[in-house]
Write a structure and sequence with these properties.
This protein is an alpha+beta fold and about 525 residues long. The protein has three domains: about 5-185, PAS domain (Beta-Lactamase, 2-Layer Sandwich), CATH 3.30.450.20; about 295-350, Signal transduction histidine kinase, dimerisation/phosphotransfer (DHp) domain (Helix Hairpins, Orthogonal Bundle); about 355-520, 2-Layer Sandwich (Heat Shock Protein 90), CATH 3.30.565.10. About 55% of the residues lie in helices and about 20% in strands. It is built from eleven helices and twelve strands. The protein has helices spanning about 5-65, 75-90, 110-125, 170-220, 240-295, 295-315, 320-350, 360-375, 400-415, 455-460, 480-490, and strands at about 95-100, 105, 130-140, 145-155, 160-170, 360, 380-390, 395, 430-440, 440-450, 495-500, 505-510. The strands form three sheets. A five-stranded antiparallel sheet has the order 2-1-5-4-3. It has a five-stranded mixed sheet with strand order 7-9-10-12-11. β4 and β5 (about 160-170) form a beta hairpin. α1 (about 5-65) packs antiparallel against α2. The longest helix has about 55 residues, at about 5-65. About 25% of the residues are buried. The model is unreliable at about 1-5, about 470-475 and about 515-520 (pLDDT under 50).
Length: about 525
């Protein structure tokens, strides 16, 4: 997915501008506070200077003739000088009290401010000390602030306290002045922000965004087997290091992929050889079973061949009736058909398996296998009980391979029954084959013999290749391992249960295919 080219630049620049503007505004607020405080401090200093001048003028006034404090209000020149002085200093309200605390001079005071100024002037006279007081509430530059300042001082002339004075002024002009300067500061902040955005876009594009886009382009355009694109990135910083590291990583990745392909090819070849080996082992085990069955053919077809020869000898002598001759020929044909069937069964089983899966009836395969084995000499004295209970027995499998599984299991059971330690009735050898559906999707087959059983320490190894408990020369140890491979390949499961003295059971589970199937397949 393509990443918008403006994405990183916009995000970084937006956050950077936000932080810097926030920092500038915060600094501006602090500076405004300091500026406002300095202006008020200057206002206080101006007030004290005005009071000193006022006290000096008052002293000069009292030194001329026999004047007293109460005469200040009647002197026009004093009023004019004081008015000019107050206007020049930025103070508007004034009140002077004598040593008795009585007001002797006032200017530009309302009733409220007059009473407050009178009280402050009296306090200054009594304490013989300066004081600065703030009153009222108004909107300052950024928040509410005091609206009025009062500066008070005692009037001391020639070491004598003659009264007290208080001057007052509105602080609104200071706030207005600060707000006017704030407009210029905000203009500078906006200009700085614009310059920062322009320069920041350029620097971010040049130093960060473009190199990263080159990295993205390199990773997006790189494909397996492609020549790794070169990165022209000579910056001696993290981006340059990242570019070089990415190039090295892609080179290593390419080398690892080539090595991985080689390993995969080797594994595929090994897997192919392993499958071929499995097929060869299965084929070899089948041939071993065929050889074992072929050994019993002489006995199995000996009797019908003897009967055929006897009938042929009678026919050759010619001392029989035509009806007897036809009867003998029919019997010879029956015996020949029997021999042919026995040989064909062995040939069918020995034929190589196609490995192709098809719909197969398990019950039919079991019946076919049992019927092929029953006439064999190795089955002499052994009874096979078929109990095909499963209502669903259709599976998808290679029937030839399943036939080999069933044959190997039954032959193993016959070997177990040839030894000592049989269970059940004395001398009775039995193999029971039971089918059932433990659930809707599986068919379970149990091959149970009443042989001596298998010890627990040996039971866990019976499906291992070349593991056998038979005497040397009587088995390869591949029969059950081949069964395991075939059943696993068909998507099923095979396991064994055995108790010493109680026989052995081989359980095969295979997945059902298709709809419900009736019958037992016999």
């Amino acid at each position: 997915m393509k990443i918008p080219s403006y994405g990183m630049r916009a995000v970084i620049l937006t956050q950077l501008i936000f932080l810097i503007v926030a920092a500038m505004l915060l600094v501006n607020v602090v500076m405004l506070n300091f500026h406002q405080r300095d202006l008020i401090s200057v206002k206080v200093d101006m007030g004290r200077l005005l009071i000193r001048i006022l006290v000096h003028n008052t002293g000069r006034f009292l030194e001329t003739g026999e004047r007293r404090m109460k005469d200040l209000d009647s002197d026009i020149n004093f009023k004019r000088d004081i008015s000019e002085l107050m206007d020049g200093g930025g103070y508007s309200g004034l009140i002077i009290v004598d040593h008795n605390g009585e007001p002797v001079f006032s200017a530009n005071l309302s009733s409220e401010t007059r009473q407050r100024g009178l009280n402050l002037a009296r306090i200054a006279m009594e304490t013989m000390d300066w004081s600065v007081n703030y009153n009222g509430i108004t909107w300052g530059v950024l928040w509410l602030a005091k609206s009025e300042i009062n500066v008070s001082s005692p009037i001391i002339i020639n070491g004598r306290s003659l009264g007290g004075v208080n001057i007052s002024a509105s602080l609104s002009p200071i706030y207005k002045s600060v707000m006017e300067s704030e407009k210029l500061v905000l203009l500078y902040i906006i200009l700085d922000t614009f310059i920062l955005a322009v320069v920041g876009i350029y620097l971010l594009s040049r130093i960060v965004v473009k190199p990263i886009h080159r990295l993205l382009r390199m990773t997006e355009e790189y494909k397996d087997g492609d020549i790794i694109p070169s990165m022209v990135e000579d910056q001696r910083n993290e981006i340059g290091n990242l570019s070089r590291s990415l190039g090295i990583m892609l080179q290593r990745l390419d080398d690892n992929k080539k090595e991985l392909r080689t390993h995969i090819s080797s594994l595929e070849e090994a897997n192919r050889r392993l499958k071929e080996a499995h097929k060869e082992i299965i084929r070899s085990e089948k041939l071993a079973s065929v050889g074992r069955l072929a050994a019993g053919i002489a006995h199995e077809i000996g009797n019908p061949i003897g009967i055929i020869l006897g009938y042929l000898d009678l026919i050759r002598k010619g001392d029989i009736t035509d009806q007897e001759k036809v009867d003998f020929i029919d019997r010879v044909e029956t015996e020949i058909t029997r021999v042919n069937r026995i040989i064909n069964q062995l040939l069918d089983f020995s034929r190589p398996s196609s490995g192709k899966k098809e719909e197969s009836r398990v019950h039919d395969l079991l019946s076919y296998t049992v019927n092929m084995l029953r006439p064999q000499s190795i089955m002499e004295g052994i009874k096979i009980n078929l109990d095909l209970r499963a209502s669903r027995d259709t599976i998808m499998a290679d029937p030839n391979q399943l036939h080999q599984v069933f044959l190997n299991i039954i032959l193993n059971a016959t070997d177990a029954l040839s030894g000592e330690g049989l269970t059940g009735e004395p001398g009775k050898k039995e193999i029971s084959i039971i089918s059932d559906n433990p659930n809707e999707s599986m068919i379970e087959l149990r091959f149970i013999d009443n042989g001596p059983g298998i010890a627990e320490e040996e039971l866990i190894h019976i499906f291992d290749p070349f593991y056998t408990t038979k005497d040397p020369g009587k088995g390869t140890g591949l029969g059950l391992s081949v069964c395991y491979w075939i059943v696993e390949g068909q998507g099923g499961e095979i396991r064994a249960e055995s108790v010493i003295g109680k026989g052995t059971a081989i359980i095969v589970e295979l997945p059902i295919h298709g709809s419900l199937n009736g019958g037992d397949g016999q």
